């Protein structure tokens, strides 16, 4: 009649904070993340036969995250995610895949009277660093890193013209528009055959994150954009060029529209075209433009 064709389960929204206290200098360093664990394996009978003997309780999964956070470094998140994912596929014979997502929230050290403060931090942006690791038994660790919710806007330097015009088209062509998006960028690393291989690459992860964030902002700011599509391709290409171990870069960019407002009805006020100053930001609908750019010679990315 029916069968379980796909199943995974685990703990979502495991919030985690870890502090490092440097005893010599008194400087403290903090890290706050939200972790998701999802396990796959020989677990069908827990669905079809109420067989809980195959269930590693999600409560135990949460406890495991806390214990591993105490016993291991939690940064970079690619390493911590790999440690947690690898734990589940090695500890339990019947668990063949473990998906671990680590969302890192920003805590930036305060500068007080020109000096970095030893133990005070502030949230300098709502963007988060997202790392997803899948430990695949007998294969290795698939690691995907990214930035999410980085809200950016440029007030000029963006055009959109030459698109299909037919009986469905009302959008005027523009050579100067506002461009705004919430950046969602991910980059996928060449498969790591083991946890040791991830450990050997530790210095690359923060470097790649800083590069991707900087490339995204610089390209967004400096590109004379023909479209969201053309700009996001340039960003992806630059990230691939900067880090040889990255095989795929994906962006998903909402096009957050700002509409001109015709105010000519009020005493002939000019507020369109080159006279536009007051705009109406739109909440919805919005464009949504996605792409994955892969290194030449690398097969298209696998769906995990
Ligand atoms: O950069 C853009 N790409 C599109 O595909 C598109 N479509 C649209 O209406 N405006 C835009 N802008």
From TrEMBL:
Subcellular localization, as worded in the UniProt entry: Peroxisome
Principal subcellular localisation of the protein: other
Annotated Gene Ontology cellular component terms: peroxisome
EC number(s) stated in the UniProt entry for this protein: 1.7.3.3
Catalytic activity field: urate + O2 + H2O = 5-hydroxyisourate + H2O2
Entry keyword annotation includes Oxidoreductase: yes
Lineage top rank: taxon: Eukaryota
Key words of the record: Oxidoreductase, Peroxisome, Purine metabolism
Gene3D superfamilies assigned: Urate Oxidase
Active site, UniProt feature: 11, 58, 257
Gene Ontology biological-process entries: purine nucleobase catabolic process; urate catabolic process
Stored InterPro entries: Uricase (IPR002042), Uricase_CS (IPR019842)
Residues at which urate binds: 58-59, 160, 177, 228-229, 255
Gene Ontology MF annotations: urate oxidase activity
UniProt pathway annotation: Purine metabolism; urate degradation; (S)-allantoin from urate: step 1/3
Cross-referenced Pfam families: Uricase
Family per record: Belongs to the uricase family.
Listed PANTHER family: URICASE (PTHR42874:SF1)
Name of this chain's protein: Uricase
